[in-house]
Amino acid sequence: MASSARTIFICFLVLLNSISWPAKAAAAGIRLIRRDSPLSPYYNPNATVSDLATAAVESTMERVRFFQARQKSAFLNEDAQVRVRAGTGEYLMEFQIGIPAQPVYAVADTASELIWVQCAPCPTCATKRPFFDPSASLTYKPIDCSDSSCTELPTSYCSRNQVQCQWRESYGDGTFGNGELATETFTLGSLFESQTIPNVVFGCSHLAYGLDDDESGIVGLNRQRFSLPSRLRVSKFSYCLVSPNDDTVGSLLILGSNAVASGSSNTPILTVPGQEAFYYVTLEGISVGGDRLPIPENYFQPTKNGAGGFIVDSGARFIVLQRRAHDIVVKGVEDRVQGLKKVYSRSREIHLCYAATYAQLENTPQLTFHFKGADVVLTTLGTYFLQDTGVWCLGVVPGDSISIFGNRAQSNYNVGYDLEKNTISFASAECGTF
What we know:
Elements: H1 2-18, E1 27-34, H2 49-75, E2 91-97, E3 102-109, E4 116-118, E5 141-142, H3 148-152, E6 156-157, E7 166-170, E8 176-188, E9 195-209, E10 217-220, H4 228-232, E11 236-240, E12 251-256, E13 266-268, E14 280-281, E15 283-288, E16 291-292, E17 310-312, E18 319-322, H5 323-336, E19 341-343, E20 353-355, H6 358-361, E21 367-371, E22 374-377, H7 380-383, E23 384-388, E24 391-394, E25 396-399, E26 403-405, E27 413-418, E28 423-428
């Protein structure tokens, strides 16, 4: 009798998952956890302040290399095989996959499209943490080679005589993830009401080479077809990142109707040919302590060869500025900070450091980024980071041509993305109180 009941239940779930649902979540509130926070499953209690600072700089520069490689591929009209490594991401998203649900952590990334996770079995995967096990789910369904999801995803492929669609992400440093493309039931959020969404297309990686121990997957939040907002058919999302020194609470990502994606400070999202996925905006200038710096506006504009531009990004830790603009900002801050002792930086990418206390830094001139239609005043912790005990550095690094508004600068702001109006909004907020 029990066996018959279970068979009926399984048939019901399979039928439920086979229906072509509209896949629209009214609102999903999802906790984001900073990778190096004690709340993170990847937290390393032995990491020193210096270790964390070095890792932050390295991951930011890796992010720069990623964007520049994508720009080059778009300009040369090449099939862009360079993808973001999850290790360069900063914020982990908690969600569940399958029925019965299995908990998963993956990087929330505004520059990526496909959702993918490491799956069991994966004999070559570095991490020893539990993977998503598709064999334990009643609703896991591989995608056929004839399916439009397989034919339209740039990183999918089918070998001769193959029935199931395969997927491969190749990274610029020779590492890769490889597996099958499938659909599965996702359960998102617990802050408002959990949303269960069937038939979400994702990559299930069974083969990995060179990935780090804490690289478990990515949730794409860009504007392309296979990103999470597109899969949910929501037109807006927002996040509110807590202060970098707040390790007691997580940050918040909201998708759908409850997202705050409009206000008095909105800047248009630009469309750059070949790079429509990224969130390019217009930066008109930068001020230090109310003084507008002499930076030509064209320093932040995309060039005809596909380089340059200014991108709002969740993955880069620090602000990245086109090299000439970077030098002007560093000098502008240095000229206006009085009474603090300059000290040597451990990193060649970080050009301005002070021996100071946090209280002393709070009295230094603030940086303001003047976007078209929106002025964003950086907090002290959005401007400086602790490189070593008693040493604070300006969190701005040089890029060859590209500029990026990193996540640290976005902390304690509600950042809203309206994908219908093509705008990004910024509103000052105490994100730790949400």
